Amino acid sequence: RNSPIATAIVWGVCSDAEFPQEKPQFPGASAEFVERLEFIQPNVLSGIPVYRVMDRQGQILQQSEDPQLPKELVLKLYKTMTLLNTMDRILYESQRQGRISFYMTNYGEEGTHVGSAAALDDNDLVFGQYREAGVLMYRGYPLELFMAQCYGNSRDPGKGRQMPVHYGCSQRHFVTISSPLATQIPQAVGAAYAIKRADANRAVICYFGEGAASEGDAHAGFNFAATLECPILFFCRNNGYAISTPTAEQYRGDGIAARGPGYGLLSIRVDGNDVFAVYKATREARRRAVAENRPVLIEAMTYRIGHHSTSDDSSAYRSVDEVDYWDKRDHPISRLRHFLLRKGWWDEEQEKGWRKSSRKMVLESFTAAERLPKPSPHLLFTDVYRELPLHLRRQQGALLQHLRRYRQHYPMELFESGGEPPMEEAEETQVQP
């Protein structure tokens, strides 16, 4: 206490040589002290670059970045993208004709679906939003089940209890889609944490749009994944519009990838219309996520050519010229077709033949789906409880009695029969006053 050094510290006369410049010791950040008042500007960087492999004419820009995919795989990428496009057109028209209640197309975003799906392992777990049908299609989900889900018929694995385009398939590790925006993000992180704990050598990929990235669930999910070091890929499809809201009105920062470093996420921005760039970025992100137990944020820049859904009219908030540019000048399908033609792996005759045969496949599945009955109304009460509780048995009985009493007012011939409880049970469990 009485030493010369202690006295020097008290009076502030110690030299820099004895005590080097102090550094912040706060536990919440890694930084240096400064003595100049200066705010950090939001445009401190010129912009996060967009990684791409080929240009709009299908020309590989740097041979060192060519993924060198075999012909069979590239043809699978192309056929999946074009088959998805064909299915979209037929189901969109089906909704417009009143045959199904709702639909969402994937026009212009096919490269993000298929490029990322090809880069994953088959047992990686997928949490989609509602515009990732191509991921499921790439994994071999049959056209018949896509149609069954959209028509809500007796073959629908969801038994007609979901809106159209809300697909799911446990065998293909694709978690059933739900409508509320961004709820899948923290759920996906929880699944990734469980996989980490199990040391399962798997990854989780969670898809969402740039609009969903404004939801609170996205921020919670990012932070959750970073702090718990989860093997997850956050795949953001930045397609320019959150329904009718353009990106200029959604945020002031540099897209979604710019948020990654703030949460401690490894981040990259990629050309979503370049299927090879999406493949390479996703493959490397998946490798790092599994090997290092770290989350990765991928922002795929693309464009939503179609309406947000059949409930939307995009001509009210964007020009026809804008849409035409992306449809005719920078489309992921045409870019990959150019590549195939350059390689001599595809020609106009093959194109015509595939377009004809793929349309025939979709129409056959479409026609078969229309002919199937709707699921039995009894299935409204199944698959939640192992043993049906009393209050649901009463509701079930009341429904059955109502349908039998007023059968002439309901098109019961359109529904699958069988599976209902006997009439005696229905009478016993009817709603009591």
UniProtKB/TrEMBL annotation:
Cofactor(s) in the UniProt record: thiamine diphosphate
Gene3D superfamilies (UniProt xref): 3.40.50.970
Function recorded in the entry: Together with BCKDHB forms the heterotetrameric E1 subunit of the mitochondrial branched-chain alpha-ketoacid dehydrogenase (BCKD) complex. The BCKD complex catalyzes the multi-step oxidative decarboxylation of alpha-ketoacids derived from the branched-chain amino-acids valine, leucine and isoleucine producing CO2 and acyl-CoA which is subsequently utilized to produce energy. The E1 subunit catalyzes the first step with the decarboxylation of the alpha-ketoacid forming an enzyme-product intermediate. The branched-chain alpha-keto dehydrogenase complex catalyzes the overall conversion of alpha-keto acids to acyl-CoA and CO(2). It contains multiple copies of three enzymatic components: branched-chain alpha-keto acid decarboxylase (E1), lipoamide acyltransferase (E2) and lipoamide dehydrogenase (E3).
Catalysis performed (reactions): N(6)-[(R)-lipoyl]-L-lysyl-[protein] + 3-methyl-2-oxobutanoate + H(+) = N(6)-[(R)-S(8)-2-methylpropanoyldihydrolipoyl]-L-lysyl-[protein] + CO2
Keyword line: Metal-binding, Mitochondrion, Oxidoreductase, Potassium, Thiamine pyrophosphate, Transit peptide
UniProt KW Transit peptide keyword: yes
GO CC annotation: mitochondrial matrix
Protein name: 2-oxoisovalerate dehydrogenase subunit alpha
Recorded superkingdom: Eukaryota
Gene: LOC117437656
